[in-house]
Each structure stands twice: as structure tokens, then as C-alpha cells.
Amino acid sequence: MKFFSVALLLFVVSGFALAQNEQSPIVEKEFAYKDWTFRNLSGDGKTNLREFAKGKKLVLVVYWAPWCHNWEHDYAFVESLYEKYKDKGLGMIGVGLYDPVSRMKDHVEMSKLTFPMVYETDNSGYREKTTHYSQRREAGDTRKWGSPWYVFLDPATLEASGDALTKKTTVVNGELIRPDAEKYIREKLGLPSMPAGVAAKSKESEVCEPDSNSKKIAVIRP
């Protein structure tokens, strides 16, 4: 019995050690981040990113999937950033992926997310055909699903026209490192630094995979 207990403890400890933590730093990558126009999750038309960025000091594009455990660790913090800085020049827009629209809407409602939402695809079978997949690969993100994935844009430096918004793109290839993210946002918005010691704890994360209820019901819509 003692041997079994020790073996079980070692198994649990090793499981935690092997748990994937996908937190990632904010880095600038040399690739062209493309402008896009996606359907609004609310169903009332479409949103163009270049137009959305106008008049803002900083824009954060948030790519997410409803079933992603890594996104579950981030979404409350992301919403708190939006609430705290939306009146100070931060624009935030979510891009839903790889699940039926109804499930995206359910997630937004249950999670009480209030920032604007669009979606690129509601079909997990089209993963490798999305701009989300190709763009994050250009950014060096080797994860299978890439949720969450973040893109920071400085509206003052964006190209006024053309397919590309910027030739150098600031990204987070994973979950946010919370104190770093808030520090970066405050700097870009011209706000003073946060008091020392004000930082959220990071959490271990899990590998994201869609569950069996993620139905393949539609095609990518521009």
C-alpha cells in the first residue's frame, strides 16, 4: 500500500511537471500583419480592422476558441484590461475561431466579455486555411491551435492602405504574462507605471484541443 501511495504521488507530480504552460512574452516580429474584415459575432454586419483602429492609441487583437483551456486562464484578465483602459485609448477586439457561432456566443455571455467580437471561422476543420494559422506561423508560433494568440497594433504607425497593416508586428504567442502585459499597455497609452508588487499570479495551462461537440458546420467567411 505504501509503495502504491508513493507511486501515485510521483505520477501526480510528474503530471504537473509535464503540464504545458503556454505563457509567452510580448515580442516584435518581422512579418506583415494583414488587414482583415470579419463578420461580427452579434450578427450585425462586419468589422474592418484598419477602420476599427482609427482614433485609438493602442489596439489589442485577441484570437480565442471557446473550448481552449489556455484561453480560460486568460479571458477574465483580458476583460479586466478592457474595462480598465477602454476609456484611456485602448481598443480591443476578439476574433473567435474553430467552433460554431452559437457556442462562441454562449461563451461570451457566460464569461461576461464586453469587448467587440468577430469571428474568422466556425469550423475546426479549416484550421490550416485560416489567416490566424498562417499569420501566427509567420510569427513563430508552432502550437497546433494557437489559442489564445495576441496582436498589439500601434494605430499611429499603421499603413494607410494595402493588404498589410504593418511590416513589424508585436505579438504574444501564447497566454499573457500579466504584469508584462499591463506594463506594456500602460506605456503605450502614456500612463504611469503600476505600483510595485501589483501583479497577478500566473497559472499552469493545458494543451488546447476542441472537444467532440465542436461541430463542423460551416465554411470560412470573409
If classified by CATH, what would the architecture be? 3-Layer(aba) Sandwich
What is the fourth-level CATH superfamily? Glutaredoxin
Rg of Cα set: 18 Å
Summarize model confidence as the mean pLDDT.
Answer: 86
Quick one: biggest sheet?
Answer: 8 strands, mixed
The percentage of residues in β strands lies in 15-25%
The general outline is globular
User: Which strand order do you get reading across the main beta sheet?
Assistant: 1-10-8-5-6-7-3-4
What order do the SSEs take from the amino end to the carboxyl end, as H and E? HEEEEHEHEHEHEEEH
Q: What is the fold-level CATH name, i.e. the topology?
A: Glutaredoxin
The stretches of 5 or more residues where confidence is low (pLDDT under 50) are: 3-20, 200-205, 215-222
The CATH class label is: Alpha Beta
Number of helices: 6
Query: Class by helix and strand content?
Result: alpha+beta
Query: How widely separated are the two ends?
Result: 60 Å
How many structural domains does the protein architecture include? 1
Number of strands: 10
Query: Roughly how much helix do the residues carry, as a percent range?
Result: 25-40%
Can you put this structure into words, describing what you see?
With 222 residues, the chain is an alpha+beta fold. 31% of the residues lie in helices and 20% in strands. Helix 3 links the parallel strand 5 and strand 6. The protein is globular and about 45 Å long. The termini are far apart. 36% of the residues are buried. The N terminus and C terminus are likely disordered.
